[in-house]
Amino acid sequence: QLQLVESGGGLVQPGGSLRLSCAASRFTLGAYAIGWFRQAPGKEREGVSCISRGGGSTNYADSVKGRFTISRDNAKNTVYLQMNSLKLEDTAIYYCAASFFPSCPLLKSRADYWGQGTQVTVSS
User: Fold this and answer.
1) For residue 55, is it left (φ>0), alpha (ψ between -120 and 50) or beta?
2) Greatest C-alpha distance within the chain
């Protein structure tokens, strides 16, 4: 079973930056499309970004376009989400997910594996 581990969350002021990491053990992430999702209190889990299995295609939710960047480093078996110009409304638990379906967007229904999540809090 693929195990995903997110890290990099924390408390940051509005306008600040964080880089989230999604790492896997025992399996190569390069075999999957990877998505980042987030869930704020009282809200449904929503898709934030996706990178295709080959890394040639990415997509972003409108709310994060121009601020977030997804990338993958197959040598490190890790996918990153660089988050800049953070806003209060970016506060949520962020999850990465892996899918056998190779393309983006990565729908929740297509996710085959999920990480445990990492908390991102944007507050002044």
Assistant:
1) left
2) 40
- The yes-or-no verdict on residue 64 having pLDDT over 90 is yes
Residues 30 and 22 sit within 8 Å (Cβ to Cβ) = no
Measured distance between the N- and C-terminal CA atoms of the chain, rounded to whole angstroms? 40
Phi/psi at 8 (5° precision): 105, -5
What are the tokens at 21?
């990491």
Beta strands in 1-124 (DSSP E): 3-7, 10-12, 18-25, 33-39, 46-51, 58-60, 68-73, 78-83, 92-99, 113-114, 118-122
Indicate whether 27 pLDDT > 90: no
- CA angle (110, 111, 114) in 5-degree steps: 170
Q: Which residue is listed with tokens 């988050």?
A: 83
* Element (DSSP H or E) covering residue 20: strand 18-25
Cα dihedral: 122, 73, 111, 106 (round 10): 80
Percent of all residues in the chain with a pLDDT value above 90, rounded to a whole number = 81
Tell me the C-alpha distance between 33 and 52, whole Å. 4
Q: Give the pLDDT confidence score for residue 106 in this predicted structure.
A: 87
